[in-house]
Write a structure and sequence with these properties.
Layout lengths: L5 E7 L2 E9 L3 E5 L10 H7 L4 E5 L18 H15 L4 E6 L1 H12 L4 E7 L11 H17 L1 H11 L14 H11 L2 H14 L4 H4 L5 E7 L6 H13 L4 E3 L5 H4 L1 H16 L2
Parallel strand pairs: 3-4, 3-5, 5-6, 6-7, 7-8
Antiparallel strand pairs: 1-2, 2-4
Helix pairs in contact: 1-11, 2-3, 4-5, 4-7
Keywords: Hydrolase
Pfam family, one: Abhydrolase_1
Protein name: Alpha/beta hydrolase
Length: 279
């Protein structure tokens, strides 16, 4: 039986972090990407809460985790410290960590800065453009997206983002969305401006501490969606895997595979984590 979710808030310097705990078992912290929040993992959590205590949260500045003052530029170190505070407050011993997109960048930084709190980090399609042999095209693309936001607004910039990354179908809600998913989409849409103004460039320019991550503890897994082949995000993930000296692991779906195919995605994630836990 899947236990009832528990929602709470954790005070951290400069913000208050909304988080939910689901299920029972080894601790698994899931970190959403960019403007997303805990709600995007609803389907995935449903598949995993019979085996894990899943901690899902809204990163500071997103949705239900407001700043205690004016919005600040996204700082990956601060976000990693927030994640560490959640593990320390809620978790039982080292946690497994799954982060997607910008959340994968945070997870990588968490593993480098707080190695004792992390057993395995699964970095799903991190935008590690700065590790590419020639990141200029990707850097210019991120800058162009930011300039589109500055000159033409949120809607134009997000339309460009979805189109540039082969995610055009995610640009608008569908009429058949169930209430919970519609609520999540509404909250996440409200985060677009903060992400474009304060999060896009810091997450894009972040360079993981490869030397710390290569130490072998925590274990680092680079996950790339099967349907992301040929997309820029595949090249970024492969660049990270090459620097770490590990083979990338194929996961179902594309950049949003955890949402579009949660059952198979959860199975892949569980298999990956089981290697470390020896379950």
């Amino acid at each position: 039986m899947i236990l009832q979710a528990k929602a709470a808030k954790l005070k951290v310097p400069g913000a208050e972090i909304y988080y939910e705990t689901h299920g029972a078992g080894p601790t698994l912290l899931v970190i959403p990407g960019g403007p997303q929040d805990a709600g995007v993992f609803a389907g995935l959590i449903h598949q995993l809460a019979d085996r894990y205590t899943v901690i899902a949260y809204d990163p500071r500045g997103n949705s239900r985790s407001p700043f205690q003052g004016e919005p600040e530029e996204l700082d990956v170190n601060v976000h990693a410290d927030d994640a560490a505070a959640l593990i320390a407050a809620v978790g039982d011993g080292p946690a497994d960590v799954f982060g997607t997109s910008g959340g994968a960048q945070i997870g990588l930084n968490l593993a480098a800065r707080h190695a004792g709190l992390v057993r395995t980090v699964v970095a799903h399609e991190p935008p590690c453009m700065m590790l590419m042999s020639d990141p200029s095209a990707m850097v210019n693309g991120a800058r162009a997206l930011y300039e589109t936001y500055r000159s033409h607004g949120v809607a134009a910039a997000m339309g460009k983002f979805f189109a540039d990354n082969g995610l055009s179908e995610g640009a608008a809600p569908q009429p058949e969305l169930p209430p919970e998913a519609a609520e999540t989409f509404a909250r996440v849409s409200g985060n677009f401006e903060y992400w474009l103004a304060h999060g896009l460039l810091p997450l894009s320019s972040f360079r993981p501490d490869v030397d710390a991550l290569r130490a072998g503890k925590p274990r680092v897994v680079v996950a790339i969606g099967e349907a992301s082949a040929g997309q820029p995000i595949e090249s970024m993930g492969r660049a990270l895997a090459e620097k770490l000296g590990v083979p990338p692991v194929s996961f179902p779906g594309d950049h949003m595979g955890f949402s579009s195919d949660p059952a198979n995605f959860a199975s892949a994630l569980d298999r990956t984590l089981s290697v470390t836990s020896n379950r």
